[in-house]
Input
Amino acid sequence: MITKTVLDNGIRVISEHIPHLHSASIGVWVATGSRHEGESERGISHFIEHMLFKGTERRTAREIAREIDSVGGVLNAFTSRECTCYYAKVLDTFLPRAVDLLADILLNSLFADEDVEKERQVILQEIGMIEDTPDDLIHDLFTRNFWGGHPLGKSIIGTAESVGSFTGAMAQEYRKRRYLPCDIIISAAGRVDHDELVKLLAPFAAMIPEKAEEAGIVPVPCGGMERFQRDLEQVHLCLGTRGISHTDANRHAGYLMNTLLGSGMSSRLFQEIREKRGLVYSVYSYLSPHTDVGSMVVYAGAEEGKIAQVVELVLAELKRLKREPVPDEELEAARNHFAGHMLLSLESSDNRMTRLAKTELHFGRNIPVEELLEAFRKVTAEDILDLANNLFDDSSLSLALIGRVADIPLESDMVNLS
Output
């Protein structure tokens, strides 16, 4: 029971009716993120996300929080490199209240000067917190190194300098320019009546349609190694190479390849580096797909004296994917792992809401679960072998390390996939 309506101004409304649930989740997805910001705007999408909870013409920040808490619901938001999402989860009887709250914060927020200054201090604390958390920071450092000077490599939350320059007027102007109906998807899942939902969304229907801005330049991965010296107990690393985009024809093989490599305790990296040799506590891999490009990244943290061996073992597993077809039994286990994880996640209304929005955002349609599972069933060992050979090359291979790294005997010519 998935229904889609396009409002007169271009906003897409998609909902899935799940009658056995008592909950309803709704999200307003805006196709704008840190990738779309100019040099002086670094972090402004994230800044706006924070500011929209600070008070409207009808509600103070305290009243916004109290109203959602009083019904046992959740109201939150997040910013990524390519989109910003504002979402709520409530009992289905309180869906009208959740829609009213979302409409109010998105359309009527005040951006008062005193709130701008307070939230600026909050975000500066957030920047400091990430700086003090090396196993988080290394991912940002890797991304910056991997995408070079392209906006895709910039920090989502910005810098102390950029955040310090924001004003309420600047944020309002950016929101007006980027929060356009043609770039908005509203998705809902749970005990939701689609026709009633569309009626509730009347405030959004009044938004004036405008032409969206043109897409920016497609980034090119940058290879190489970068060390960040810190006095830490562990060295944290991210090693990665080219990956897949959201719509890549080989994306299903890519997700299975990542599952085999570093997703879960039975993955090759976990078994070889942690279980067999005890070199690390944490090691995993992940795909970071975007609209037109992507990366595949391995994270690990280890003692300074073990890092060179960890890097060598990670490279060995990448090379193995390039040279040896995956055994049938291992490939089938990866299929089952991915399918099980996906299906279990769809037992919650918020994950179903998210899936509706993302498939519409990237493909312009809903992709039935059975269609997706069938695509994974068709992936062969040869598909994964071919993809590994297409993605894993020295030109895009990048390594970032943070910790006591100055004396690690690791040279750039040792980090290769040849």
Summary: The mean pLDDT is 96. The first strand starts at residue 2 and ends at 6.
